[in-house]
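Could you help me review a protein record that somebody else here produced? What it holds is a sequence and that sequence's fold in token form. I have pasted the whole thing underneath without changing anything:
=====
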Amino acid sequence: MRRLAGPVLITTAALVLTGCGSSDSSSSDPSSSAAKLSVKSAYMPQPVTDSLAAGYLVIENDGGTADELTSVTSDIAQDVTVHATTGQSMQEVAGLKVPADGELVLKSGGNHLMFENLKRKPKEGETVSLRLNFTKSEAITVEMPVKSATYQPTSGH
């Protein structure tokens, strides 16, 4: 009986571990459906005033879960606010959705960022650093180039 106890325990332990392993691998991995955010086409037109500037970019989400842009900070402005545009009306909002397997487009004439109470007026050719904060995802730091005041992107917006 004693000679069988060792192999039986080893076999039982192996089956338990195998069972645990197979149940873990067959369950869906929550990280595979998480939001996967990246930023492209960021730019700021050179501001025409000393106190306000606008910012535009595209946040892509290659993941299966939606997220939300909740706030933005930058060392160049006292405040950076998120604005939604409906028709001819612009309104500050608490956040903007980044759809699963989609993108949030911030563009001239549409949803955008407003840099308020500028600490200095950025000039064309400079880069402005900003931090995008989300509900679920880690924050993303973006280096936003300053373009001419009349710059019109050819793609991405």
